[in-house]
TrEMBL record:
NADP-dependent oxidoreductase domain mapped to chain residues: 19-319
Species: Nostoc linckia z7
Record protein name field: Aldo/keto reductase
Amino acid sequence: MNLPAASRLQFTPDLNICRILNGMWQVSGAHGRINSQVAIDSMFKYLDAGFTTWDLADHYGPAEDFIGEFRCQLVDTRGKDALSQIQAFTKWVPRPGKMTKKFVEENIDISLRRMNVQSLDLMQFHWWEYRDKNYLDALKYMAELQTEGKIKHLALTNFDTEHLKIITEAGIKIVSNQVQFSLVDRRPEVQMIEFCQQHDIKLFTYGTICGGLLSENYLGKPEPRGFDLTTASLKKYKNMIDAWGGWRLFQELLAILKEIANKHGVSIANVAARYILDKPTVGGVIVGARLGVSEHIEDNAKVFSFSLDDGDRDRINAVSRQSRDLYQIIGDCGDEYRR
Ligand SMILES: NC(=O)c1ccc[n+]([C@@H]2O[C@H](COP(=O)([O-])OP(=O)(O)OC[C@H]3O[C@@H](n4cnc5c(N)ncnc54)[C@H](OP(=O)(O)O)[C@@H]3O)[C@@H](O)[C@H]2O)c1
């Protein structure tokens, strides 16, 4: 399978990425048991299908090690040049507290070692507590490490617009922010998108297919309860749906999405991803991959095979207008991590 050119984004001068990124939270253990070798074998399938870009974090179980091992096996089987085909975006999620250059560098070095790279393609920094201003020191030291060659590009995850502004005004060049953005959670539309557009910052989005809830699997189905929600991802986004408007409204959304999907010969998940990919400043949608457990490679490739029209978007927006305002309930992007 070859993805069309429209699947690619020249994200930075040196990073050409796939606009559907493979999310690796799903190998952390909270989404079912993962067999390492089967998982790494399946990483080759993603690469060969054109899904070349990985999203991971220091705390996603073995995710960084999987990238390291995948890179080793790529070199062994296909030669060193094959490494240039993959991009791996990690995160550092430290506990708040005093940040020294030594501490920051030690932690970046751990990711470099685990991922078996000389330089991190993208470091997406997360911070739990805005009252603790040490995040600015952490970013300052990471910017130094970038100058020294250990990091190619600096990015954030789950930062709200106010703090993204503070960081930008401190002279730290941020290329992207990773946030939750879906047909259920449209908070980035309130102010994040506009700020990012003004400052040439891309958004990478998660939760875009709500852990799989935005799919045929849940169309016309009774409301799933606790034990039906078998992954951390399903639990997370079911809570979001409850806050947004509940299962009945969600079924209305699924029904409209199904009609639109049928019209284009694609799936509900495709429509949900396409809608967000088309939003301004969105660089890519991250779709979680339970490596070796389940796979949607062929279906997700169809995201690049069709376009939504104004009529499709109007129908979707008409359902969204009936929902509660998550920005009012939760706050700006990432605020759900800081309550
Ligand atoms: N920065 C953060 O705070 C943060 C938070 C959450 C996630 N993330 C990132 O985003 C990634 C995605 O995680 P997520 O929790 O948002 O999950 P998600 O991408 O919304 O959902 C992933 C699940 O959706 C199902 N799926 C995928 N493609 C499908 C298709 N075409 N049709 C039907 N179902 C499909 C699969 O379920 P089955 O496996 O059951 O088939 C898959 O495991 C993570 O791996 C991580 O990289 C970041």
